Amino acid sequence: MNDDLYQRALLDLAKAAHGAGALPAPDGAALRDSPLCGDRVHMQVALTAGRVRALAHDTKGCLLCQAAASLAGLHGIGLNAAEAAALREHIAAALAGSEMTAPAGWPELDLFAPARPHRNRHGCVLLPFDALIAAIGAAD
Amino acid sequence: MSFHPAEWRKHFPLLANDSRLHYLDNAATGQLCEAALDAVTHHELTHRANVLRGTYRLAELADAAYENARRQTAAYLNAASADEVVFTSGATASINLVAHAFGETLGAGDEVALSLAEHHSNFVPWQMLRERRGVTLRFLPLAADGRLDLNRLDEAITPRCRLVAVTHASNVTGAVTDLAPIVAAARAVGARVLADGAQAAQHGPVDVQALGVDFYAFSGHKAFAPTGVGALWGAARALDALPPFLGGGGMIGRVTAAETSYAAPPRRFEAGTPPIAQAVGLGAALDWLHAQSWLALRAHTAQLARRLLDELAALPGLALLGPRDFQARLPVVAFNLDGIHPHDVCQLLDQHGVAVRGGHHCAQPLMDFFGVPGAVRASFAPYNTEADVDALLAGLKDVMKKLR
Fold it and tell me: ipTM of the predicted structure?
């Protein structure tokens, strides 16, 4: 099963690093560290009417963290604070539960299903979304 | 004397029952030896009662078992007296005990010296003390390989230094600290010395008197004993001078509505019901370890680590953290594969039955010193074999194939 954790599509998603970089004039930014492994995500957002107009992240982490950050960069545009928090809770519940169901518009979340049995890795997946929520919050 | 790791392995039930497991995370936790398991089981089945307060026969048996564990621990450490051994929940609790009790005697203007090579358990308590008491922290400089730079001790151990808290051996690099010059520098300014022995104690008996330190902390679970128990050794003169840390039953002389007087060490520092069965297990483990032929055991684990170091050096993009030599070094090897996160390495190694640790190893200041977020760490115990090294190396080649 571990092999599935590192399936090609997940490696490609991590390598694509959607949203990697920095914004010239962010409205909000947040730094989040994983106390377990030291992974670090620095997320910046620009908002329009409370919704993410642009985001950028600098992610130092494992492949799961990099892929999750890339996913946030791919689909995070348009989220508001409540939707980002709901998405994060959905991912957390899916990782903790028996099924990994991807919400509409986020089909790549299925790639993280093999992480379910590895509880200590759940934080790697959630860290970019925690940073995203905090960055949106910092802009309010 | 020849040493047969496969025979030693038979004394560890978990490993004896799983021949496919290549357990190389001994710096995190050692496997439980059967001597400890048997002692805990025997105690719980025949001697279970609270200690130091009952007058019935069963309680007296529990008292005797608990105090025997203290004597066994004292013997392993070559303590002058069993009363110098305080049972705690582990090295972290031992260090926090000193940080609170000794820390109560400190204030603004006093200094505590430590190093960037410390485990968080010997780092954070001193930062917390700084916040509580306003003491100043000074850091012993490190050489490029992560060893303490003993030529620059005077930069951190000043006339205002009251305590030096330093690792006996790094949980990341395996580097063993030469404590003698540190003790000498501390003595010259009237400072106490605490050695964090969490990584050292499982690699053979310790001689705290020869080390010359005032306090020595270690954990049972790393020394093939149960979790939830460890010890703080303190020289009698040092323990006598400490106020209590936790208050409660068992640590008092007399309690009145007006005031409380305190028991003498070690009970002054063992408030509440201690981890009795765990301590009995620790005593049994240390007693068993004490009887081993450590010259041969150390030669065996050093050979495994040396071979790993040699073969890792041939891997492309490999960066070793810590000394490359094998002088004053434990069989602990930390490294990174360029472009591959330690957690991903460890996750894939698990497929090969190899259990190693990846991450910052609760040593983030040292990781910052090396300029890396984390590392993969393989750490050996005498039950490890060449087959464990083979599996690790084969696994690493597979990791590189998959993730590069």
Answer: 0.89
